[in-house]
């Protein structure tokens, strides 16, 4: 599983023989790989006018390009803002709530991201092929797809330590947009026994400030060290966890896409009963 930014072919269809050689050495003789582009085909074509573009088929004969358009930038931010506004309404009517949720289009973005990640995972696991993922800059949607694919495929990424390592290398080190966390929760929520991390382990992370700008490592204590404390770690573990080394396949059917209530509705819905139920579940499992 590889990730990169777009090739800089430009309007004159420039070639980069170093890139061609690099991707050529990744594949064995006669093997085919997949390039998953997180832009639509028209958007990728239009990017040539700005110096970007796609890999020319003639220069990458062993690679098959697949376009899976994922929103990024302003449209995604506006969708996120509309969702937050809808969730901040303390007393909406049923029609108003459903209408605002639908108009935000947030759950559609979640479904598209999960579907693309499942495609990447399927190419790796079932086709036994190499996969290169990129969009424009190689951030945001690219990192989202590669991170979700790792959660689907690699059971070590679904442990507490593995998940923190995934966050560090795939999001925090490259300052990716953490509003994508809803996709992670969706991947976990449909298979609750497959990850030792509880829902609460995801909630603190989106509140992190821009680390590099604020010099977090120099001026603050590590969030990871705090989460690794035994008393804190216990709060974030999933009592239903049962280790499974197999691949997990989250459902992407429209009926199964849910809103992450523990994050988006945590300020207007009392969570005491939910926390009490979670603690009782832990006691039952430990007693058993």
From TrEMBL:
PROSITE patterns: PPASE_MYOTUBULARIN (PS51339). Residues 1-264 form the Myotubularin phosphatase domain. It comes from the Eukaryota. GO terms for biological process: negative regulation of autophagy; phosphatidylinositol dephosphorylation. GO terms for cellular component: cytoplasm. One of its GO terms (molecular function) is protein phosphatase binding. Belongs to the protein-tyrosine phosphatase family. Non-receptor class myotubularin subfamily. This is MTMR9 protein. It comes from Alaudala cheleensis.
């Amino acid at each position: 599983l590889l990730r990169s930014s777009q090739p800089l072919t430009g309007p004159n269809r420039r070639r980069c023989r170093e890139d061609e050689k690099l991707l050529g050495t990744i594949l064995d003789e006669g093997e085919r790989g997949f390039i998953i582009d997180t832009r639509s085909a028209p958007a990728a074509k239009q990017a040539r006018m700005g110096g970007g573009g796609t890999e020319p088929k003639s220069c990458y004969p062993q690679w098959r390009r697949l376009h899976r358009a994922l929103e990024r930038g302003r449209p995604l931010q506006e969708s996120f803002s509309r969702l937050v506004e809808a969730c901040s309404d303390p007393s909406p009517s049923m029609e108003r709530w459903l209408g605002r949720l639908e108009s935000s289009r947030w759950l559609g973005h979640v479904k598209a991201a999960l579907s693309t990640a499942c495609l990447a995972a399927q190419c790796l696991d079932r086709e036994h092929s190499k996969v290169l993922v990129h969009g424009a800059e190689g951030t945001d949607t690219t990192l989202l797809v590669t991170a979700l694919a790792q959660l689907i495929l690699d059971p070590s990424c679904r442990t507490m330590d593995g998940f923190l390592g995934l966050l560090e290398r795939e999001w925090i080190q490259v300052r990716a947009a953490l509003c994508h966390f809803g996709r992670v929760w969706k991947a976990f929520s449909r298979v609750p026994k497959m990850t030792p991390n509880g829902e609460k382990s995801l909630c603190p992370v989106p509140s992190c400030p821009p680390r590099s700008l604020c010099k977090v490592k120099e001026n603050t204590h590590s969030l990871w060290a705090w989460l690794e404390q035994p008393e804190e770690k216990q709060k974030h573990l999933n009592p239903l966890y049962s280790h499974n080394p197999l691949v997990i396949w989250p459902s992407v059917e429209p009926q199964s896409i849910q809103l992450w209530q523990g994050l988006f509705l945590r300020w207007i819905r009392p969570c005491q009963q939910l926390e009490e139920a979670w603690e009782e579940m832990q006691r039952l499992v430990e007693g058993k």
